[in-house]
Every structure is written in C-alpha cells, then in structure tokens.
C-alpha cells in the first residue's frame, strides 16, 4: 500500500503538470473556438462564426495548400535522406563516431539560430550559396525570394536541422538486424539495392512507420522557419496553417478564430493518425 | 493541436502573481497608485534619466498620485495576455495602428467625460484626435505625430553626384536618383515586403500618388487600389527593381534590415518617418548631418503615423483622471516645452528633428511657439529635414485602412510578387488582392 502511495505521489505530479499545461489549454482552446473574447467583458458565445470567418479568409485555403505541399516535400526529401544517411553510416568502417557527430551536430543548434544562419546562406546577393555558384560560374538562384523555390528552400533547412535525430534512430534500428540475414542474401547473390529492399527495409519497418507518423505530425505544424525566414512570403507561398494561426492570435488578437483554426488542425492530424494506425494494423495482421 | 494550443495559450495562461494594472493595485493610503509604461530602458541612459526625473517632479507636484513606471511599450503580441492576466498598465502607449482595433474590441477605457478637463486638448490637431475617437467617444490622447517621408543618405548622394540639398520631389526623380546611386555602388532605394510592412508601405505609396487602399461605399468599406493608381505604384516598383536594378537583389526586407543597410552606408533612400533617423544614428553611432529627410515623393497625400496613450478598460475613474493628468503633464504640455528643450540641449542631446520632445501635434499659436523654440534650441542642421517639415505641413495626411494588419498581410504579397518576380502580372495581382481585401473589409462592423 505504501508503495502504491509513493507511486501515485510521483504520478500525481506529472498528472498535475499535464493537466495544467496540456489538457487544460486543449479544453480551453476548444471552448475559445466558439467564443469571441476581449479579456475585459465576459466572453461572447458566437457559435460557428469563428469557423465561418476562417472559411471566408482567402488565406485559409492557401495555408492548407502550402502546409500539405510542405509535408509532401518534407516526406520526399526529409524522410529519405536520413534513411540513406543511416545506411551509409552503418556501412562505414572508419571514423564512424566522427561522422555520426557531424550528422547530429545541427540538431544541437536552436531552430532560430539555424533559420537565421540559412537566411544568410540563401541571401541572393552576398549569400553563401550564390557566392559559391558565382565563383563556379554557374547561374544563381533567388532561393527564399522566389515563390517557386521558397518552399523547397525551407524544406532543405528543416531536413538539415532535424535529420540527425532521425538518422540516429534508423542507425540504432539497422544495428539490430542480424548479420546472418545479409550473409544469406549474399549467398543468394543479392546486390546492395536488393539487400536494402528485402532485408533492411522489412527489418526496420516499424521504426520507419513510427517516424513517418511523427514526421507528418511535426511537419504539419511548421512555424519557426517560415516565421523567421520568409514571414509567409513571397506571394503567400510559405504561409502555413500555424503561421496563419499565429497571425490571428497575435497580429489580429482574435483568439477565437485562432483557436478555431487550431481545432481544425487538431481534427486533421487526428484523422490522419487514426487512418495511419488502422492501415498499419491491417498491414501487420 | 498541442503545439498550437501551447503557442496560443502560453501568453493567456501566464498570469503572474505580482500583477500590476487596475485590478490589482488601487488607491492606497489616500494615494492613487498608477502603473504607467513608456519608461525608456536603462540602455537609453539619457531618456531614462529624463523620464525618471519627470516622474519624480510630477509626484512632487501631485502628492496624491503614486506613479509606478514600467519599461516598454504596447506590444500587440502580448497585449491581450497582459490584459487577461491583470498585468496591463493603467496608462499604456500605443502606435496609431493600434487604437481602432482596441476600441472595436472594447479594450480601452472611454475617456469622453474626462478629456474636456485636459488642458490644451483643443489645440491638438483634429485629425490626430480622430485616431482615438469613434462615434464621438474619445478613447485616448495622441502624443506624437509623423508622416512618412523620404529618408536619404547625404554622403551617398554626394558619392553619386546628387545634390543632397535638393532631394527628389517626385517618383520620377526618385527613380533617377536611385539609378545614379546604384551606379555609385550602393542600393539606390529599398522597400519593405515582409511582416505586413510591405502592405503598410504600399499604402503610403498609394496615398502619395493620390490614391488609397479602401473607401467608404455606403455603410461598408471596399478596396480602392485595383485602379490606375495601384498600377502606377506597381509599375514604378517594377521599373526600379527590374529595369534599373536599383533596389538590390535581396528582397523580403523589413524595417530592421533596411535600417541596417542605411546605417552601414549601403543604401541611398527609403520611405520612413523621422524617428528612423534617431534610431539609425543611435544604433550605428552615426551622425545626424549624414541624413536628410524629404517630404513623401509625389506629395498628393501621405500616411499618418504617430503615438499616443490609452487607459486600461478596467481603470477606476480616479485612475483615469490621474492617468490623463500624467499624460498631459508629461507629453502634451506646451508650458514645459522650453524647459524640455533646454534640458536636451544642455545635456548634449539632439534637438531639431520633428520627433519628441518636439512632437508635431499642435495647431495654431502653440505650433508657432514650438517651431520658434525648435529653431532657437536646434543642435543639428534642421535644414536637412526642412523639406520634410514643409511637406508634412502641406501634404494631407490620412489614416490607415480598417482591419489594417489583415489588409497589409494581403498587400504584402502584392509587393513581394513585384519585387521577386520580373514577370508578375500587375493586373492579376491587384484583382486577386482586391477580392481578398474586400472579404476582410466585409467583416468591418
């Protein structure tokens, strides 16, 4: 019994923290979605008005389109690169620790620092990339300053900044694959690609699927990089859902509409997670 | 949701225990305890000293009022959280951008019954009082006013073979000067296009050519920039950016970027209010004589900007009276003008720019008296800014559109498109933006 009291004691601290800092804000957010508040008088219940305002905002569609586009790009680039990097790192025979540190190093930089650093890299004038391209006699790019390349430029930043953690997780998964499987594949005459396809990917399937879910949830909440690097531009090409939410809350002080948008995002991610879990369970069965 | 809810509610939930503001501090020992902001930070030693001395003197003259100064100004990003948490000061500073939204959300006290007792209130320019007035009710006092002008680097003008004493008066002259500046190795002209500042400056451009962003159509506001004036503004931007290449390659700039360029001597001109001169000189340890300020090119109209003070909507009548007394004594006091100027001059501070302590808010005799004193105490070449002062007097200033920040967010992308895409179709850009702005303006009640 005494042990139980101690256990509940430890648990209650975590429960209180979660209740105050996670669950209460979520419930409050849902309530706020149906209110207009000025923090002076009592909140006005406005029904679906906040949602109607959102649907009437032309940026609403733009923000969702950009967010999905960003997520797809982040999946194509940000999902494959860490896996390939992990496979390469796993094959290394020398300087393993050095390269692992190198890959993980960007994760240690605060996101704001990373964003500011890359903003300079992308500067179309004296920026690093264009200076190098000019030095090589190659054509330069507008990077963040063009609506055609702004989103992919952001994806590169985020991939660079976050791939370290994903790479290490893949690496850990790769090292659990029994060596006999590769030996058997060798005996069967399988090449590198066949070994990756028939041994590596099936053996790391669980980790890959878990990271896919986490990455989709994270990338759909992209905020820091567009906020610092582009402010949503050029031509609204990098206005994301969270950036629009931020504008409603802190530029327009319309917390009701911001909460409504937050609720929609929650619903979309919830539906995605549900479908994802259902599909993966079916695949496992 | 978790992350977004946290972003959204972190501020709202951050209710401190040591709250200030009207719901926590009140009348103590017969004294009205009044929280005020606008106190300069310690890094601005001179301004801080003057402010603290003024607080002490005011308290001496008004023993029934106890002022509690706070650093900083009104920040729209934290305003609601401070108000919700009872941490909003009783008297708070605002830019002219803020009052319309604060009044619409009922987040400022109604001062109508009190302002009639404020000395010299009638001498303030009517258009500035209008910023704080809705349906005949008064919600604040303007304390500073400036309009947008053309800020330029005098050394770079000389370097480019331009006469710094004859700054451009029209947009054609701006374009020609920008070209020469570019040929001299600096960016000729810079323009904002990020963080809603592109939309803000597009509004200033529109007014300078005699246009506007929105007009009243019956009871409703409608967009008013998809026309030849809007086309003219975009055409001029395109010509400078792409035909002349006089605006540099890097775009998506905001005010800090452009001030950095100007402070580092890499820029010729940009649209700015006079407070930018002081900001650049202070930040880059520059010299006032290196900068000139001209009236807005075109001069068919200009965008009004400025500062003022509003009062916490939860304030008691005693606090409102005490708050207005402080604001009038400190910021709207022609009787203290000469004393202030003498203090600035005696302590080696710049006098002569049309910014506080010489706030351009007065009309009639008070204004004449102020101008005479400014000339008498000036410590900098005021002729460098005379073109701006004359222009500001002659050019009609007007206010921002309703739902300004949302409108600016939409117009940002128009400016961005022109500055980042040489082939941008101006007609389509304006038409799309018009549809979006009309959707926003339709929400104005």
Describe the overall structure.
Chain A: One of its GO terms (cellular component) is plasma membrane. Chain A: This is Multiple sugar transport system permease protein. The complex is a heterodimer of chains A (285) and B (445). Chain A is mainly alpha-helical. Chain A has a single domain, classed as Orthogonal Bundle (MetI-like fold). Chain A contains 14 helices and two strands, in the order H-E-E-H-H-H-H-H-H-H-H-H-H-H-H-H. In chain A, strands 1-2 form a two-stranded antiparallel ribbon. In chain A, strand 1 (35-36) and strand 2 (44-45) form a beta hairpin. Chain A is globular and about 75 Å long. The mean pLDDT of chain A is 89. Mean pLDDT of chain B is 87; it is low at 5-25. Chain B contains 18 helices and 15 strands. In chain B, the strands form five sheets. In chain B, strands 4, 7, 14 and 15 form a four-stranded mixed β-sheet that branches. In chain B, strands 9-12-8-13 form a four-stranded mixed β-sheet. Chain B has a three-stranded mixed β-sheet with strand order 1-2-3. Helix content of chain B is 46%, strand content 17%. Chain B folds into two domains: 17-146 and 305-392, Periplasmic binding protein-like II (D-Maltodextrin-Binding Protein, domain 2); 151-303 and 398-441, D-Maltodextrin-Binding Protein, domain 2, CATH 3.40.190.10. Chain B has 445 residues and is an alpha+beta fold. Chain B has helices spanning 2-13, 45-61, 76-84, 99-104, 112-115, 126-131, 154-159, 171-183, 197-208, 228-243, 255-263, 275-284, 317-331, 337-346, 364-377, 383-394, 404-420, 426-441; strands at residues 27-28, 31-39, 65-71, 91-95, 133-134, 137-138, 140-147, 149-153, 187-190, 214-217, 220-223, 267-272, 291-295, 302-311, 397-398. Classes of the chains: A mainly alpha (285), B alpha+beta (445). At the A-B interface, helix 1, helix 13 and helix 14 of A face helix 1, helix 3, helix 17 and helix 18 of B.
């Amino acid at each position: 019994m005494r042990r139980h009291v101690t256990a509940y004691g430890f648990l209650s601290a975590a429960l209180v923290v979660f209740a105050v800092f996670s669950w209460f804000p979520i419930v409050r957010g849902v309530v706020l979605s149906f209110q207009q508040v000025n923090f002076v008088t009592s909140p006005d219940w406005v029904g679906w008005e906040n949602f109607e305002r959102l649907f009437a905002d032309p940026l609403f569609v733009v923000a969702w389109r950009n967010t999905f586009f960003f997520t797809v790009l982040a999946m194509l680039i940000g999902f494959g690169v860490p896996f390939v990097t992990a496979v390469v790192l796993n094959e290394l025979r020398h300087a393993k620790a050095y390269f692992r540190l190198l890959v993980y190093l960007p994760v240690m930089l605060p996101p704001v620092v990373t964003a500011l650093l890359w903003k300079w890299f992308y500067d179309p004038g004296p920026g690093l990339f264009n200076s190098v391209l000019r030095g090589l006699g190659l054509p330069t790019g507008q990077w963040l300053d063009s609506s055609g390349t702004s989103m992919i430029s952001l994806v590169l930043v985020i991939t660079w900044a976050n791939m370290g953690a994903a790479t290490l997780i893949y690496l850990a998964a790769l090292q659990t694959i029994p060596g006999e499987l590769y030996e058997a594949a060798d005996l069967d005459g399988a090449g590198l690609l066949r070994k990756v396809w028939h041994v590596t990917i099936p053996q790391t399937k669980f980790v890959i699927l878990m990271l896919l879910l986490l990455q989709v949830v994270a990338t759909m909440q992209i905020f820091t990089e567009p906020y610092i690097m582009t402010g949503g531009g050029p031509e609204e090409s990098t206005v994301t859902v969270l950036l629009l939410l931020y504008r409603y809350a802190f530029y327009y002080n319309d917390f009701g509409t911001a909460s409504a948008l937050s609720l929609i995002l929650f619903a979309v991610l919830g539906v995605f997670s549900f479908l994802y879990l259902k599909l993966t369970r079916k695949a496992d069965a | 949701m978790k992350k977004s809810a946290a972003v959204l509610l972190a501020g709202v939930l951050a209710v401190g225990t040591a709250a200030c503001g009207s719901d926590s501090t009140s009348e103590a020992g017969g004294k009205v305890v009044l929280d005020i902001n606008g106190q300069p930070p310690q890094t601005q030693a001179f301004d801080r000293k003057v402010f603290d001395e003024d607080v002490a003197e005011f308290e001496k003259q008004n023993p029934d009022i106890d002022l509690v100064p706070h650093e900083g100004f009104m920040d729209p990003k934290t305003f609601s959280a401070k108000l919700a948490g009872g941490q909003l000061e009783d008297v708070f500073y605002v830019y002219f951008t803020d009052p319309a939204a604060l009044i619409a959300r009922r987040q400022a006290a109604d001062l109508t019954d009190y302002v009639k007792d404020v000395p010299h209130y009638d001498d303030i320019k009517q258009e500035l009082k209008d910023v704080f007035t809705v349906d005949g009710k008064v919600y604040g006092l303007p304390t500073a006013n400036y309009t947008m002008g053309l800020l330029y680097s005098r050394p770079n003008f000389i370097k480019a073979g331009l006469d710094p004493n004859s700054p451009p008066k029209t947009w054609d002259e701006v374009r020609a000067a920008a070209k020469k500046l570019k040929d001299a190795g600096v960016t000729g002209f810079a323009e904002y296009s990020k963080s809603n500042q592109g939309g803000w400056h597009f509004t200033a451009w529109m007014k300078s050519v005699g246009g506007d962003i929105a007009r009243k159509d019956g009871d409703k506001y409608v967009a008013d920039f998809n026309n030849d004036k809007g086309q003219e503004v975009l055409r001029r931007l395109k010509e400078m950016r792409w035909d002349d290449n006089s605006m540099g390659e890097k775009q998506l700039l905001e005010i800090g970027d452009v001030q950095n360029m100007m402070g580092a001597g890499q820029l010729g001109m940009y649209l700015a209010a006079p407070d930018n001169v002081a900001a650049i000189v202070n930040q880059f340890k520059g010299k006032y004589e290196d900068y000139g300020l001209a009236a807005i090119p075109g001069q068919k109209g200009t965008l009004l900007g400025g500062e003022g003070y509003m009062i916490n909507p939860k304030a008691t009548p005693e606090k409102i009276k005490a708050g207005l007394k402080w604001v009038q004594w400190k910021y709207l006091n022609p009787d203290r003008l000469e004393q202030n100027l003498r203090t600035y001059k005696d302590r080696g501070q710049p006098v002569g720019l049309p910014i506080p302590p010489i706030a351009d808010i007065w009309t009639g005799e008070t204004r004449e008296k102020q101008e005479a004193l400014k000339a008498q105490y000036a410590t900098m070449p005021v002729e460098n800014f005379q073109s701006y002062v004359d222009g500001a007097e002659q050019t009609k200033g007007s206010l921002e559109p309703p739902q300004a920040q949302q409108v600016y967010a939409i117009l940002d992308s128009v400016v961005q498109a022109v500055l980042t895409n040489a082939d941008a179709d101006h007609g389509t850009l304006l038409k799309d933006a018009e549809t979006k702005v009309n959707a926003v303006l339709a929400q104005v009640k």
